[in-house]
Design goal:
The complex is a heterodimer of chains A (300) and B (263). Chain A is built from 10 helices and 14 strands. With 300 residues, chain A is of the alpha/beta class. In chain A, the strands form 3 sheets. Chain A has a 6-stranded mixed beta sheet with strand order 6-7-8-3-9-10, sandwiched between helices. In chain A, strands 2-1-4-5 form a 4-stranded antiparallel beta sheet. In chain A, strands 12-13-11-14 form a 4-stranded antiparallel beta sheet, with helices on one face. Chain A is elongated and about 70 Å long. Chain B has one domain (2-259). Chain B is 76% helix and 0% strand. Chain B contains 11 helices and no strands. Chain B has helices spanning 2-32, 35-39, 42-50, 54-58, 69-102, 106-109, 116-149, 155-180, 187-207, 225-231, 236-259. Chain B starts with a helix and ends with a helix. Classes of the chains: A alpha/beta (300), B mainly alpha (263). At the A-B interface, α2 and α3 of A face α1 and α6 of B.
Amino acid sequence: MNVIELDRFTKRYGSVQAVTDLTLYVPEGSFYGFIGPNGAGKSTTIRAILGLLRPTSGKVSVLGRDVSRERTCILAETGYLASEAAFWPGETVGDLLDYSARLRGRRRDQYTEELLQRLQLDPSRKVDQLSYGNRKKAAAVAALQHRPRLLVLDEPTGGMDPLIQREFFAILEERRQAGATIFLSSHIMPEIRRHCDRAAVISHGHLAAEDRVDRLAGADGKQVTVQGHAAVADLPGVRDLQETPTGQSFLYHGDPKPLLQALAQGDVGDCTITEPDLEDWIQRFYREEGDRDDSRYPVP
Amino acid sequence: MIRAILFHELRRGRLSLLIWAVSVAALLAGCALLYPSFQADAEELGKLFASMGGFSAAFGMDRLDIGTFAGFYAVECGTVAALGGGLYGALIGIQALSGEEAGRTAEFLFSHPVARTGVLAAKLAAVLLQVLLCNGLLLAAGVGSAVAVGADVPWRELLLLHLGYLLLHSVLAMVCFGLSAFLRRGAAGVGLGLAAVLYFLSLAANLTEAAEPLSYLTPYAFCDGAYVFTEGTLKTGSLVVSLLASCICLTAGFVWYNRKDIQ
């Protein structure tokens, strides 16, 4: 079963096309990464999943229900951590968590206290005096305390120190072990690489790539690093060729024979052929997307 | 869940309610308690105030004897209660929905399993309850100061006037609540500005007979102190139009908010 299904989801704000024909399936029990540069349409997609906005066209289903018709049923089993966690001034963390629990027809329980303790958050502190990282922690506890089936996390670890980040992901792993699905929007590639099993990359409101994380970067080809020099520049399938004082590095996608012949004929002392690193891949991807003209996606 | 939102709203608004209600009630009581010192020269001052042309007409002093407690209360204290409470009602109404988006708390609130209609109903109930509490204090201040002054008080008209203020403040709160659904930023200015403009419209409506139709455009007209104390009733036509306008604004706000994208 897919916990999130976007079927040709499109959202337009006036003349701005935020997301176009996005089709995405998030399998139940997965830790799913959602990657994209600023303005790519990630937040718009997340808002549509939560029913905060109406699609211009297309369909959004969550937990097997249509978001436009059964939003409250969906949200009863969903936890959301916003990228900019904002709360009502003057309240304490405890007040906030009480309110969040009551909005779900529940009360704070032992699990809430455990989360507070593990994330090292004092419930008596005023929310308007919290640092960015502590606001994130408060939002995380509010999102987790009812043990949701689906967690939607938008840049969740911003401001959290590394130890708290580790504890936070340990909690997420526990929730996943308990059967929850986690949808993680993040710019931080090590987070995606370390925790997610699948990921989608969104760019200019379009789905640019979607695959298992270990295959995502590999779809672009192999990373080839050469000590020395070989005449590879004109080979079809060579991309992002970088010349260094001691050698060359490039991405290669295609039949390996021409590459091996070129390497054999060149002045090559050593050569490694590996899967490309996800961080390098996404940085290259962002760079290439940034270079493209936005007018590729005009509003009809 | 609706109860949770209602209590949360009341809790958040309690300090604002306390400051506004106590301030306006203190002004009203302070104004009423000035009556004994005014009474000494009441006859001369009454004639003076009644002969100031447009100014007298605007505040109803051409129809009321300001030398009596009823006239003094309707003109002097009534202005404080109507305008002060009106500004408060407009402010809490206009901030009820727009404040959630301006403060970016709407995203947190609506990520919970709450229907938008339920949130609107709870917030509206909280706004009206705060208006009721504020008016309760204004009434207590008015009655208390009238008793303290020891003047001959037409209690029926005074209570009717305060019922009018309750309706006026509720109408302003409801109109602004409806508008609040359409606004994200700068809402407080819109609410306070609207309350002030409608008040000045009511003054203009009193100036000449030709301007009298303006009284149907402003809710301040149906609880005009001079009218209530001379006719013994609220201005029905203006009241009906105001209630209709507030129902239209509320309906439009509910419909729009149920369809809009939450920021």
